[in-house]
Amino acid sequence: MKVYYTSENKMYVTDTKSEPKEFVSQKIETYKKNISEIRQKSEWKHSGTGAAFTGTLRNPSDDEAANAYVCGLAAAPDGRLIYSVLTGEVGGLYYKSENGEENHITAAQNFQPFEMDCRDGRLAISVEYGGGTRHISVYDLSSGNLTELTDGDTLEECPCWSETGKELYFSTAGIGRNREGVAAAVSPREISVYSFENNEMTELCGSEDLDYICPRIGKDGALYYIKRPYKLGNDGNFWLDFLLFPVRIIKAIGGFLNAFSIMFGGESLSSDGKSFHNPLKAKQKDDKELFIAGNIINAEKTEKANRRSGDKNPGIIPHSWQLVRRNHLGEEEIVRKGVMDYSFTADGSLIVSDGKHLLKLSEGKEEIFCKCRLAQNIVAIE
Asked: What is the CATH number of domain 118-141+148-236?
């Protein structure tokens, strides 16, 4: 069995006998190579004092190749992996064999595919559209037709097929906007199901205080999902951004003048001879705090708290993130606490990500499958 997952925009593969290794996307590698060649040809236009004076100076660290990442995985009917990728403004779907060989499925400008699930040659995809909306679409792998199932000012993610293929489960949330039409907050996420027979969507579970995400149908026929506390505006704090806007403008102007002074006068405007300090950049370098699914998590504190709670294998995801099993009567059972993402193996075992490990849960036992960082989009292929 091979287990594939994404972590920090890259793909990885592992099994019970080896450590995880990057499963390199040939599409991304080609994209980066092309960007590098284009940049080298036009580098003279964006460097030196002349470019700084005309405003065309480009920071080499602001590489366009950073806009390339893997954002979804699914198992194809023939046992190959399917991955979705964004490279600049172009999104695509690709097959990838165990030996690393890739085959193109489809690609298009402004096509932004994210989480996926495949059944009987149909690929259910969460596709992002303008204004931050995401809707569920179905791509037919044989015909190449893409059908949009849902619409509206909503955020719909993590599609999952039912056992029969007649329904699609997914999480959904409404988007709140300010007067300018900019997304300011997202409502609590709910689990809904779309029926192809009735051509209608039904809400299964939701709460004003909780997010319900990552629905999956287990081998036992039960519905599984992750339940976690809802935080108002967890995809962005509009009012904080609004209040800090004047401060950020001043910092931007100060940073520009400081760079201009260093380039043409050889001196910094700050008293210590250094450039203006950006606390946000410093915070991003501090691995103790991580931004996960719209939530800031202190990894060190959370791991210690999980250990104190008696976790055999403490991870960095809070215990308030619970993997839940819901039977046909609607009764809930907590399977495990501190879960970031999960998937099923062919025999019905669970592969769970706690932000620090992949754990295998089978017959009431829990063991470390491998150590990994922030694993998502987990797919197990026999």
From this structure: 2.120.10.30
